[in-house]
């Protein structure tokens, strides 16, 4: 019974995975029978950009760093829910639209998009850059989410359905706690950690936030809000104080006349009227068809052919949980190290921009990636670009970069580690299950999940966590050139915004991917004559299906079916696989 937890979790995981694999096998059979159909589907008409076209920036669903290449398999595989959109594709579409004379403007159609503020800031910056071309930017929605309105606010004209709503409520963090539920199940989570602010374990041990965690969450939420509020105030010609007054009136429950009089929107229009307004901007007849291009359409719009040269900058993406493994889903250490090694050996690549969007994960895997970045850094410049998150293990793999660039609203830092070892003794008693043991040495049964640790075992576990924390602290201090005792003041597991991190030296510059690329080019003395290629190469879902590394497709499929529960599922998977030592922020930040 020593492996009781592993058996329970393995059974649960096995049931889910078996169903997923069954679906995959069925799909393989279908594809075998439909090969000719797939061939015909994949050779559909290519999008041709017309004169006098509008870029339809329809944002509906989650926005991630990148998405797999589209193919007919994707359409058959996915449900009716909105497909994720890649930030890289959105940015690329806006840039192409800016420089293409056939596109006259951008129509922001922000629906139920889901993205963190740092991602939205990246898109908003591109829209501001687009406006420098002199082309128009307009926005329309029946209902604006807060993130959607943040993007729409940059438009020349913001329109809303006369019966619509606009959600602008500020920011809140609403964590969930499981202590009482675990107590009822007889599960004791044995916690070992370093860091006053290391709050990832609190949901298992408390019923409310600790004062230290409340302090840090309040600090970074208010800092993020200050940037969002400032951008809105500037875009809408409203004072910062008035923005807060408007938010406190809860615009979502106010009439559209209130939105209009408060200057949150410019006009009230039905969609047919909005289309007529677009026709007037395009100078076409009232009944004429509006030529539009989506983000997906813009992928096929070619620009000047770019080939890999002796002056190439690699943009290496790392997003998701940091775990041990060889696949490309999440940040799997062996796969990522292999990618970094290829870039190190490639003589045509003169610099690397390491794009990180991760709340961390395995401390061991983080150390492996840190070492690979150290070796890469010895041969060519490495500039880190932080996305929504580069915290805990995400900061571990970032701290050794030559330069670190983050958005003001990025969440980073969280320098600390913890271990979680569940004790199921109470559960076995509730189930009427008993265990016994015979052992040859004092600690032969170390890690037995059906009994609590004894005092000596607790001391040894805590000592191991403290050694890991000391190493983490050393890596950060040496990587950032900050004395270790000073770095300790900014550690303790505390989360900082990118803006706060710059003030204390954890970050060098504020900006997005483009800023990081410019710094990398300057460090490599490339001037303006360089090209950028993205790594690792993206595969379509069909390629993932026929690829030997089937776990990548399984991971994507589980994420599709489990949705928001995927992260907690991965936590259970980590416990099952005994990857107990974690350098990460909470699995769910629950920021609204």
List keywords for this structure.
single chain; 592 residues; alpha/beta; 2-enoyl-CoA Hydratase, Chain A, domain 1; eight-stranded mixed β-sheet; six-stranded parallel β-sheet; 24 helices; 45% helix; 19% strand; globular; disordered N terminus
Would you spell out the secondary-structure blueprint of this structure?
Elements: H1 4-33, H2 35-41, E1 53-59, E2 63-64, H3 72-77, E3 85-86, H4 87-99, E4 103-110, H5 117-131, E5 136-144, H6 146-152, E6 157-166, H7 179-185, E7 188-194, H8 202-205, H9 211-236, H10 240-248, H11 256-261, E8 267-268, H12 271-282, E9 291-293, H13 295-298, E10 312-319, E11 322-323, E12 331-332, H14 333-345, E13 349-358, E14 360-362, H15 363-377, E15 382-391, H16 393-396, E16 403-406, E17 411-413, E18 417-423, H17 425-430, H18 455-480, H19 484-490, E19 495-497, H20 498-504, E20 509-510, H21 513-523, E21 531-535, H22 541-546, H23 551-562, H24 566-576, E22 581-584
Helix pairs in contact: 1-24, 4-5, 9-10, 14-15, 18-19
Number of helices: 24
The CATH topology of the domain at 312-422 and 492-584 turns out to be 2-enoyl-CoA Hydratase, Chain A, domain 1
Radius of gyration: 26 Å
What is the fourth-level CATH superfamily of the domain at 312-422 and 492-584? 2-enoyl-CoA Hydratase, Chain A, domain 1
Mind describing the biggest β-sheet? 8 strands, mixed
- How many beta-strand segments? 22
Q: What CATH architecture of the domain at 312-422 and 492-584 do you see?
A: Alpha-Beta Complex
Global outline: globular
Regions with pLDDT < 50 over 5+ consecutive residues? 1-43
